[in-house]
Backbone:
């Protein structure tokens, strides 16, 4: 028999006849709840049929991170931290001594209250950018642009939206998957009623972090949406000789600067002074169910990460090679999306701005699989070859758009 | 004999020889005070010669409402909530099962720390707009405009200004009127030293909410001011066949789109897909003391609201018919003001930007009278007829300005 | 023997073999620390060989100052308050009944969460300006300008940056100088990795407040920087007949309006309706070590302040005469800097934008010496004469730039 010990006053239990589900509400605007700190352990939940885990929430203090919150899920295999006050973004994943994420000059987890997205002609987002995964959307994404003289700042608002509801759930049945769900509201009178339930889940014993987001258009009108899952990895995984692999149907340079990178786009240089960023637009091949995978691995091919996604939801992939110096932010982005990173007016012209009908819902599923052995990397490489199954890569040598 | 029981440490009592006044300071920058929560009841005050009332303050949490505050005054007749952190605006009034206010896609009471008024070329105000009454002013109001290349964002700053001092007062003498007063500072070096003491009062036993604001120009120079009391009502009061009544001296369409609404501007359609908003500029007739009244009532003419104001203070009335779908925000605005909603440069050209001399003070008085019976509605209709006293309505068929 | 009594849990003690240093960390993003309130006294530290002192931190509440913090150092000679949440700026210094600082229409210590620097085409900084000393920098400073279509708002970001680490230190050895140090991070991905350790120090028994800032470029690239120490003084020190003195090598009017003030720039009028501001660009002479001093004194020449700085670090001096009415903000600025107050593109053209190499550090040293007797003022006047040592002042009669 399980013995459940809950911290007093901070848990919500939902009983039904046969299922014993555990939901812990940490934030809820409807009930005026924002727990400053909180923790639950598998031991407290009486879960003895799984490896131990802990879920912790804390509130951050000092500088521009004053009032930010951070939730950390820790299993024996990995530790993942996400930021409710910044769009439920993933700050970093750790597995053993390996950290997935990167080192930005922005070293605080910035409270959006201190961010002005319109700064520097729409680049205010850069004042807070340091996450392993940022949701860039959903009303708009990409480089700053203007429609009807209105500035759409870099990469939209979701990543600087504090979650309105946050729920930690632990599946009753083994393997007791842990979910951290958050509700993001991009609500603006006349303009937007996009709400997204984000779900980040981890199963004890599995080295994968899953994302399942559900975007709903709560308005009575068709609404455009765009999303880029800006997934970013730096050293030590990223290094000279590290490579990216994907079943690529088509690739084009984002701009003129990236043209010269077309020949060796799969390989990374070490930290390179003056490199800045080279960006490529990719269309991936997918399996019969629309699923595909991209992988970043280190030079020795013994550690890496696989980013799996559904091309019916996220048809394009931006590859962001920002292999500048370490201090400048040595990082690469593997970014599944509905759009490339061009301003919305360009994405619209080229047909990559999608529309959601009234009450329409669109799901987005991604997985970050941590690869910690040559065998795991080899398996993903074979999977990529299998998806491509000998089909060619079309190389477009000129940028498909000019900013 | 009255027996006063005060919560320890959170009340300020002012005694004078003959008057026993009760002032409760809830916020005060001068004494560094911001009570997170607070309550007082007529019982605790020992007031047995009136119907019971309660005044409550709480701090809100989660999402973009983190840190917002809300004060609720509840008598046997009505419940009114107002938002100290958002310009002392009225969030909603309830009377029995009837809620006066509306349902915006913005469903949180947003802390101004999360608002950037300049967003979308000056439409950031829409990220927080959901109140029954918003003060749109006082330095400027109306649609976004530019003077000297400076953007004046939609509807000014007052509604996104957290109050610097908040005082709840209960009259010692019956009927023990309850006042909630707040100090709004629109202070900017070189530009503005406008301070407004807002006063919202409710008398137990009376179904009226009164506003008495005093705007002071603390600068040594003449300062322009504008104000629109953006008073908004949705369903169930607003419905197909609901009507608005006022003693109208002159009416004009705000823009070309509103021209076709001139014939039936007094009647509301039900929620209408694609309606967007139709706006009319009205000049009301007033009684010999300058007082006038506008009324919104439901189709059955058994429930409504009367908005009374002083035309010497607030000479014009904007009628905002936003009878779009429910989710889009089905709402009408009855908006007494010094200005219409044109950008300030247009209002200035047409002579509706007022000036306050150094140390000058201007009062603004409004009343929201809840009408909950056919008889009450009938009385207000007769009052409106009496004010108009047979005088004609001048209909101007073309917009008086182009944005 | 000294007896040290420390508040439990809020002090960090660093012991070494021979030095007994006391560091109190009040804010630290690295350890997630932000003390809401704190105090230490010389008595608690067991320091009996000095005059008594107190250091206090508090958190401010209400209005737009909600969440601001204030640290006050009080010795028998002076009281100085500084604002960790606003760039470690000095709010005011008091000595006896004399207050150094000024009275701005902005009378709250505004939390930067409520500031939008881009407002009014880059004048949002004016919504919070009321300090005796504001750091205007470091990425840029001066009047709003644009480079690459990006708005650089008035006087940069440092003054609206909350400190990421705050440490109060008391020297173990007599005279037990008190340091308040703060870390300001102007970190933006791709753009800026400027970090500044500010140090404000006061020695019990000495009527001087010292500033020692160390700006570091943490990026791998050369970075431009600019700084103006905007030091502001109003009544009672500033009055009709008050004068400013400095060893001036060169002076020019900031704009056409200031041309007519060239003849009597050393003397101040009383509060003057319509005066607005007159600004002068000064190049000071320095002593052989590059040190110089400017002094503001009252009419009677019995009270004043000397501002000392190092011309190798801060080669130019802006004199801001804002002798408008009291309510408008009657104030003068004595502002040592690397730049004048022109927009950055002008400062760049004229060679006053400096560059810091990767990992480069630049120090800035200033002293505010409170002068409270005719003898002290006389001494500084003689010092100024000595520095000038009969060398001429070059008067440039036309503005050196047009905005």
Residues:
């Amino acid at each position: 028999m399980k013995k459940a010990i809950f911290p007093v006053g901070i848990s919500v239990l939902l009983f039904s006849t046969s299922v014993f589900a555990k939901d812990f509400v940490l934030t809820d605007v409807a009930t005026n709840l924002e727990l400053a700190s909180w923790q639950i352990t598998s031991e407290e939940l009486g879960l003895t049929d799984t490896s131990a885990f802990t879920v912790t929430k804390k509130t951050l203090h000092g500088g521009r991170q004053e009032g930010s919150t951070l939730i950390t899920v820790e299993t024996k295999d990995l530790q993942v931290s996400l930021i409710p006050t910044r769009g439920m973004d993933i700050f970093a994943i750790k597995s053993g001594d390996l950290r997935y994420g990167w080192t930005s000059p922005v070293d605080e987890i910035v409270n959006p209250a201190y961010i002005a997205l319109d700064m520097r002609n729409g680049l205010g987002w850069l004042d807070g950018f340091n996450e392993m995964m940022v949701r860039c959307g959903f009303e708009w994404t990409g480089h700053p642009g203007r429609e009807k003289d209105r500035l759409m700042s870099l990469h939209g608002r979701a990543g600087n939206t504090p979650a309105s509801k946050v729920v930690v759930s632990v599946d009753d049945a083994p393997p007791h998957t842990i979910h951290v769900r958050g509700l993001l509201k991009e609500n603006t009178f006349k303009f937007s009623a996009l709400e997204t339930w984000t779900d980040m889940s981890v199963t004890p014993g599995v080295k994968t972090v899953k994302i399942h987001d559900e975007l709903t258009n709560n308005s009575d009108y068709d609404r455009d949406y765009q999303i880029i899952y800006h997934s970013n990895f730096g050293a030590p995984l990223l290094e000279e000789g590290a490579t990216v692999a994907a079943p690529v149907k088509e690739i084009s340079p984002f701009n003129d600067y990236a043209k010269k990178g077309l020949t060796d786009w799969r390989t990374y240089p070490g930290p390179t002074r003056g490199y800045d960023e080279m960006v490529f637009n990719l269309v991936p091949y997918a399996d019969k169910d629309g699923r595909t995978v991209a992988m970043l691995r280190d030079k020795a091919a013994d550690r890496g990460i696989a980013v799996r996604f559904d091309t019916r939801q996220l048809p394009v992939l931006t590859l962001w090679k920002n292999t500048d110096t370490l201090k400048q932010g040595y990082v690469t982005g593997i970014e599944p999306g509905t759009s490339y990173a061009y301003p919305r007016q360009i994405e619209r012209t080229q047909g990559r701005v999608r529309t959601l009908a009234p009450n329409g819902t669109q799901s987005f599923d991604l997985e970050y699989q941590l690869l910690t052995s040559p065998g795991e990397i080899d398996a993903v490489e074979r999977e990529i070859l299998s998806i491509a199954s000998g089909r060619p890569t079309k190389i477009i040598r000129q940028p498909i758009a000019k900013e």
Summary: Chain B touches chain C at residues 27-29, 32-34, 67, 112-113, 116-118, 149-151, 161-165, 185, 187-193, 218-221, 358 (CB under 8 Å). Residues 243 and 267 of chain B are 4 Å apart (CA to CA).
